[in-house]
Amino acid sequence: MLPVFLGSAVRAAEAPAIAAAAAAGDPERYIARAAHGLASVILRHLGAAGLPAPEVSGPVPVRREVRVLGGAGVRGRRVVAWVGPGNNGADGLHALSLLAARGAEATAVLVTERHHEPGAARLRAAGGRVLPASGPAAGRALARAEILIDAALGTGANGGIDLPGLEAGRPRVPASAWRIACDVPSGLDADHGEADPSVPAADTTVTFGELKAGLLLGRGRSLAGELRLVRLPGLLDPALLGDPAFSVLSEREAMDSVLSPRPEEHKYSRGVLGLVAGSPAYPGAAVLAAHAALATGVGMLSAFTRGTARLTFSGAIPEAVVSRREDAPDGAAASRVNAWLVGPGLGDEPEDLDAARRVLATDAPVVVDASALAVVAPSAEPSPVPRLLTPHAGELRALARRLGADWPDPLTRPVAAATAAAKALCAVVLLKGSTTLVAAPDGGVLAACSAGPELAVAGSGDTLAGLLGALLATHAARAAAEGRPLDAAELQRLGAAGAVLHGLAATRAPGRGAEPLAAGLRELLGPR
Ligand SMILES: NC(=O)C1=CN([C@@H]2O[C@H](COP(=O)(O)OP(=O)(O)OC[C@H]3O[C@@H](n4cnc5c(N)ncnc54)[C@H](OP(=O)(O)O)[C@@H]3O)[C@@H](O)[C@H]2O)[C@@H](O)CC1
Ligand SMILES: Nc1ncnc2c1ncn2[C@@H]1O[C@H](COP(=O)(O)OP(=O)(O)O)[C@@H](O)[C@H]1O
Description:
Strand content: 15-25%
Radius of gyration: 26 Å
Structural class: alpha/beta
Bound molecules: ligand NPW, adenosine-5'-diphosphate
Number of helices: 18
Strand order of the largest sheet: 8-1-10-19-18-17-16-15-14-11-12-13
Number of domains: 2
Distance between the termini: 25 Å
Helix content: 25-40%
Number of strands: 19
Shape: elongated
CATH architecture of the largest domain: 3-Layer(aba) Sandwich
Largest sheet: 12 strands, mixed
CATH superfamily of the largest domain: Ribokinase
């Protein structure tokens, strides 16, 4: 898991080391190291060697398009940096001088009058140019740029960007230029990912010290592009850094959460999922959830649906045992259920909501999705097995309204919103979005960043719900065999794993829309 911190926490945690370096007569110690990391990422991208490897992480487990420039080597490459007034600009100047020393045609475009003079002097000494943004030479350099480094503002940015040089230069950069942000795209809020329309988008962001939450939340997810982390050992004071805002689950960790059946297992020992879903108005959601559960791997699917949805469901999912809705959760077909999924296409008639309430009153693990969220009530006590709730931002807002809860807004403060809801409801709350956050009642948050916008289709949430139901059922069965219940931490991890797998499945799906996602999941997980 990769920890992610608020940008403001990283900024606070670097202050003592920076002050100490300055007091020791070495004020540029960390700037030089950050610049070395930035230049090294650019050189590697160009297939050029020349700098000893810094601590650069491999790609962060966040779904991105990686842009590759044609050609090889750095010699003669036209690299231009927007350079601002603070240390971010200083990083850019130092990185440019490293590239200039290796033969790049390096140009700093000063977007403010104030800038880091030693960095500018070093760039000139290495053969690079330093130009004011207002002059014609800067315009010409920008118009020919192959690589554009955004070093205008870093974590010291406050308010909207007011950098006339940046504003004027932006339209003149060729669309083909590789845009690389130094630490954060200029003007992006590094805590929450808020950004006004003036924030320039990057293809790649090279960030320093630790990953900043704003790069993964809100607009940051698309503005930051591919992420590279350059660690600067000794820079950050752990006491000031505090706990991560959240941690990103890797693909490997997600894949490892899927249990393979043991040779001696039978359908009941493997895990039975009780599916309370589908209604005459929404028969398809139950089918989508069922396909995803079967693709993830359950021993048996016991579905409880009503009206004409029963026929639709039986026809589509021949291996499921299909019962009447009123038989959940007490009928014979429910006796072996290890975990429940309630909600996809459930409907909101009184009988639908009654069924959801009955399932929530059991002490089996349950995924609560879609309209079943309407029966969730606050709880002072955790149930023996916590619930996994799967709202998107709109559903979480509706839940807060119904309960009269004063939770932060899930769109602008998703980490705080999911955490507040998890605490108030004593449940694991999986807040769906382009970055999906999974909060546990004890306050820890995990994140899944594998999803792309192709998941923004009706029915993809039903697929996620089925996937999550299968993970819960198989793990609950395994835990029961070991004589223990699933705890909140396990449920949270399974929630995050499911969200990561959902995003990965979309990359393997044979077509667009929600229906092919289950095939993508089968392809991803192989026979289980
Ligand atoms: N420190 C280190 O050794 C290390 C730090 N690192 C690097 O330092 C970066 C942080 O540097 P930083 O603290 O100097 O802040 P930075 O983001 O460059 O800008 C602040 C300047 O911009 C100005 N300004 C602010 N908002 C503005 C606006 N809206 N419109 C216009 N101007 C605005 C602001 O002016 P002020 O408002 O204070 O008058 C101030 O002059 C960090 O992101 C990383 O890249 C790495 O090298 C690792 C080691
Ligand atoms: N822009 C996006 N990028 C990545 N994932 C997305 C995006 N939009 C939606 N998703 C994912 O798609 C799913 C949509 O779920 P939901 O809104 O419940 O849809 P439905 O109920 O119609 O099936 C969620 O898992 C969400 O995280």
